[in-house]
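Bench notes, afternoon.
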Amino acid sequence: MKQRGPGGDRPLSRRPGAGEGAGRRSESTPAKPRIDKASANDQSLGAVIAADKRAALKLASVSHETEARLDRYIALLREWQAKTNLVAPSTLPNLWTRHIADSLQLVDLAPTAKRWADLGSGGGFPGVVLACAMAETPGASVHLVERIAKKAAFLREAIRVTASPGVVHLAEIGDNVDRITGPVDCVTARALAPLHQLIGFAEPLMRRGAKALFPKGQDVEAELTEAAKYWNIQPQLHQSRTGDGWIVELSAAERRS
């Protein structure tokens, strides 16, 4: 957001001659700079985000090239956020720890994965973050499936601006199998649906050899109990580095008859 410049100085009053206007001030009080409240708030938020970035990179270190791509992504997200609700406004001060680092930790759980599928990518977490992290990996690709046209448009622009290996599919989440061709090493989804539904979306990709990584909150046990009513699964849980949540890892799922 452009910052409005300071207001111009008021004209100086005429300096009085000898014996003229004895008690008068020689010049008027200079005008105070005019500050655009929106710009001031934006600058203040920028400082908070910068501090949050430093904390996030201690949780998930990246190369300088990846950091630069993530910087461009965050700048674009903040620009689009003003007109399209990409993330909850309350999370803006913690974009790096709440969203970036939270997404980056998935890479460490699947270090050999090159081809990812992110279902319901929304504002790009974790899909765009993964694409930024994978940009230096030969043969890497990230499929981002999103059903809302405005968000899909943002995702395409984010992939372009960051020069990352991503492909955006504007489609209902259940249609992802028909749109994703070739092998997929890992499938993920964040804040999309209850676990038993996520497994239903991902199962065709898992049947083709993909591993699933699903970030979940503190109620993960309840979601696992519910999922077990519909699926035979052997989940592995990983505690999140960025909060009280968990990441559910699945290598296979078989629908209960």
